Amino acid sequence: MLVPALRRPQASPVAAAPAPVVVSPAPVVVSPAPGSVSAGPRTQISFLGRPLAQLGTIEVTGSLSGPHAGRLLGYSTGDGASFLPDAPFLPGETVTVKTTLPVAGSSANGFSFHVAKVVPLVGSPHPPPQETDVLPGGARAGSRGSVEQLPRGDL
């Protein structure tokens, strides 16, 4: 009678655990858009794509006016909020917004936009713009309050 040879139990092959998938949060959409040149002094800054509780820390600083305090008001739809600064921004300044979230249209967790200088209409009781005033889009004020468009090499 043949007796089967005793075999050592073989270890069953163990599949390597799959590498964890890191999912980056989708960027929030902001307004004014990163790089905008025509925001008003009393603009609010909107964040769309996250509930208010997930917006984290937001810092707002004007290049001329300094840090801005304000409040975040959530949207009734639950998908965003607006930062309402306590004081207006200054015409001609750059506003920098830092956040802990990725921002659509920006390569970093933050962005900046420009506050437009207000140019009075011709015939307005306000003084005309000066020759040195540069307007959004590369236009420059002329000597009699007219506006001349400067050529842009990037178009």
Supply the key terms.
4-stranded antiparallel sheet; single chain; 155 residues; elongated; mainly beta
Question: What does this molecule look like?
Answer:
With 155 residues, the chain is mainly β. Helices cover 0% and strands 28% of the residues. It contains no helices and 10 strands. The strands form 3 sheets. The chain has a 4-stranded antiparallel β-sheet with strand order 1-2-6-5, with no helix packed on it. A hairpin with a 3-residue loop joins strand 3 and strand 4. It is elongated.
End-to-end distance: 93 Å
Q: List how many beta strands DSSP finds.
A: 10
Q: How is the main sheet built? A: 4 strands, antiparallel
- Tally of separate helices: 0
Helix and strand succession?
EEEEEEEEEE
Q: Which range does the strand content fall in?
A: 25-35%
The helicity comes to: under 10%
The strand order across the widest sheet is 1-2-6-5
CA radius of gyration is 28 Å
Low-confidence stretches: 141-150
Strand-pairing-aware structural class? mainly beta
The overall pLDDT, averaged over residues, is: 79
Q: Based on Cα principal axes, name the global outline.
A: elongated
